[in-house]
UniProtKB/TrEMBL annotation:
It comes from the Eukaryota. Belongs to the MDM20/NAA25 family. This is MDM20. Residues 160-199 are annotated as: Disordered. GO terms for cellular component: NatB complex.
Amino acid sequence: MVSDSDYEIIELIDRGQYSYAQSLLLQKIKKFSQRIFYRVLQNRILYDTGSQKQAIDNNLQLLQKCSNEIDTVTSLNEFFQSISMQKEANLCYESVIKKYPIQAEELSLIWFENSIQQLDVAHFNKVFSYLNKSNKSETKYCYWYAFSFYLMISQQSKEEEKGEKGEKGEKSEGEKGEKGEGEKGEKGEGEKGEKGEGEKQSKLKLYKMFGKKLIEELQKSHPFANCQELYVYTRFLLLNEDYRTIEDTLGKFNHPLDLELRLLYLDSMKRNKSWKTLYEYTTRLLFEENFDDFDTWILWLNSGKQVGESREALSSRLATNTTTTTTSRNELLVKIELANLFNHDTAGEIDTYYEKFKNKLSCYSDLSRYDLSGKFEEKVSSVSKEILNLKSRDVEHVITLVNNQKFNPIVDNWDIYKQFSSASVRSKSEFDNNPLNELALISIVTDLSRVTPSTKYATIIKNIAILVELLKSDKYNYRLNLWLMKLYAQLNTNDMISSIYKALKINMVQHETLGYYYTSVSPPTKATLDDLINIFRFYLTSKHEIKETIQNGFEKGVYSKLQSFITFGQKLQNSISLNSVVQKIIQTILIMDDTQYLHYFIKYLKENRKSILFGDWSDNRDLKSEWSSLLVTDELKTAQTNKIMQIPIDDTCTKLKLLVYSMFFEHDESEILRLLKIFNKILSSPDFKPDQFTSFIFKSYYNIIKLTTTKINKNESQSLYNSLQKSLKFGKIESMLTSNEEILSHQLNTNLMNLVELIKLVKSIAKRSPSAYLNEIINTTKSISNNLKKNSLISKQLDIIDEMKFVDLPLELDTNAVIKEIKESITSSTKSILNHL
């Protein structure tokens, strides 16, 4: 049992206070000489303070003693786990379980609990095999073990998909560069590939067989007790595409099917072409059980036709439906589908739907899926003209016009906005979105899609002013806020995004999907660092929450949700968003010289180096929400494809920066050389096409690291030094920093942050390893700093904005206040970088 004083020692070790921790441990060992747990902690101190081999050897000896103290087993397992000695980590539990079978169930459950955060389903399978053996009377362990086989198969399928992408050239250069040169050429790639693929398929076949057999054997004494147990069995039937058995099994089940199994049953009958059974089942669901689901209606129509029901018979049966009103959205759409199914003209059904739902925002998305006739467009135009001529208008007229403009615009969207904005605002509550702003946003994005190099920034600023005006009466409009952030991100208005991001109340998992709006362009300030740390805390919290959710999922047998819980956790483990936050935090710390968190994040980077630098990064960023309801023209669809006004993101540069930090704060020269080789391989890759300034930054890092942390001869050192001095001349840097035409671009502040960070890192390494070369380079960087402070980077931007003319604005608005805000933001954001020189 770990005592409070034991926890104190563990915390001291975690904080790096090794001397004090060691003195307390010696007292403990003197008092409890037989307790191996304290020896493990001592070895952890040895490892952390540089005596890695001795610490590992000591713990291997302790492992052989096979202590059944829970604390000892757990701490030994954690030690070997932390240094990627997985075989030894497993032996910590396996040896004790085999030696003390009476403790097998308890130890296996602890092993599982302590390994959940790894989210390694193959590891789950190993643990569950012991757990299942430990207590055969507990049926849930059998289901856990069986389900883990399914999870392994599913994960293997995902990895194969990634492998296929990698073969097409999408594998990261870091991942390619991780293997040593000696691994090449031993055996023909084709021969190895064929053998490996054969073994893989053989394993998958065994997994399917074992998982299915476990459940079938259990069924002889324990029939399915609920839908979740049946769900596990159907996973293996699905893997074998055995839809006939699925249909038979689900059809005979004596309990009501839950939604997941009900949908599977419907799909199986469709695949098996069991039209009569499907027609009868869907009829019961729709007409007796009130299951008003659109996809089920479609199955009912198709199966009805297959069993010989006529269009008239199906239409008559539909008319007798009492589960919904005769004018429900689904029912009217089903009537359109019915006409389509029998190749009848759908104009009448479409008109009926339109008349009922033209004043609902779902109207356009529902009807745009069908072929709409010229007569329909004429009808829409006629309705629009009638509304435009009305003297009294309400929100229903507004929504009808919004739909009609998407179907067939007859006037400019802004004309409608001006005429109807008062009626729209008057009728909505504070939190309702103004429907007219859908049309406004369509016009804004269309305008942005037509910019030329000469009009780009004036158009951006004009539309920022328009969005700010629209948000005055619609401040909770999600997409308006997203587009406003997108536009601010195109300029050097870095500090404008923070307040919008916070106003959207983005929290928890939204940081994973939308965090890039903030992290990509955030300025180096104390407030930014606090925000980034808070975002990072979400990932720390999520680990514990996911662990608890998965543990509860197994305990309660919620198998239909478990796979998504595990997949979600795996996506968060090594995501682009997480790694971008870590990179941005370290960059901000370095620029600000705020070392409070530096030790923690460099340690985090080192502990997670393998996955961060060589693993696959999952991309969970939401790049589509801002386009919702806007794609009503080919021009707008093209704009989305071209990613206009995209938040600036560069995942390769993020990985390169993390490599730079890893090298700068690494003391092992062989590891630095290994990482430098990978770094250079990415820089040299034809797939990496940075702009001139970014290329200069990373080449400078390469030369500095090679010059200062590796053993090279004097000639090579002099050559690297000469190259650095040449590239660090201010005149050259100034010409690359940004052209006068693009000085308003966000790239200016991005380049400045990267340059200041480079200067800070050079100073840092000079303190640690001073040399004549570095002293001269530091003198050169001082000249860069002095020149940058004198440079008119800010005033040049403000002068360009002052020369802009904003005429023919679609709304009556005063642009002066917004322009003033933009100029103030440019001034403060750029200054916040230059002030750290």
